[in-house]
Amino acid sequence: MPDHAREGDRVMPFDFDRYRASRRSASVGAVLVYRDQITSTMDEARTGAAAGQPAGTAYVAGEQTAGRGREHRTWISAADVGLYVTYHLIPKVAANAPLLSIAGALAVSDALRATCGLEVDLKWPNDLLHEGRKLCGVLAEARHNATRTDVFLGIGVNLATSTDLPPEVAAIATSVAESGVEPPSREVLLGMLAGAIERRAMQAEVDPAGLIADWRARLVTLGRRVRLHTPGGDVEGDAVDVSPSGELVLLLDDGERRAFAAGDAITTRDA
Q: Which of 129, 130, 191, 256 gives a 20 to 30 Å CA spacing to 178?
């Protein structure tokens, strides 16, 4: 059974009735597991999937003690200031699994617009920005076996501003509250997000080109001079496009066009 807030706990209770009234999806989020405090929703989702929880289950935490982003970086997940959730998804076509992180970013953008009118920008590969500062991160991890691919789609949205952020994080982070709009409740945002993820995941299956086109239209990385930190070293060039599978295409100074599947894109100026 999901946890509820303990006496004296800082974590606000989760209102399941409000969530159910807000959800607009057939299967995604139909089962929701809530914990006041856990290490990470990603770990909880992997454990739940292994124990037989159905695909589409949402794993939500009031607080994470070891939340993580790409390359196992720490995602600071204080109580009562953010939405922390991981969805367990099983794509019908395993080759479409990489598109689910794109679907997730678009779904968060859709849900924020629908719940509070906030417009955000997308930054390659998986960040949501408001006025150049990070408001949300999306992380997709896949687990493959002989019969299927499980995708664990982790999402962290800064709803309010944490007072405990290190200075170097506070300088680049923002929140829905800082944008000047009233943040939606976790329950309402989760309800809207479940439907948005279901729609965008279906788009990844039936119209991947349309998904990429929608993503491309919102990417602020394109048209900028980019320094890309990759496992093989730094590369610099003009970000000119994304590939059908979501790779960032750079036009290098020698005229070569190269596509990169992973890396941290630091924009330096307009191209």
A: 191
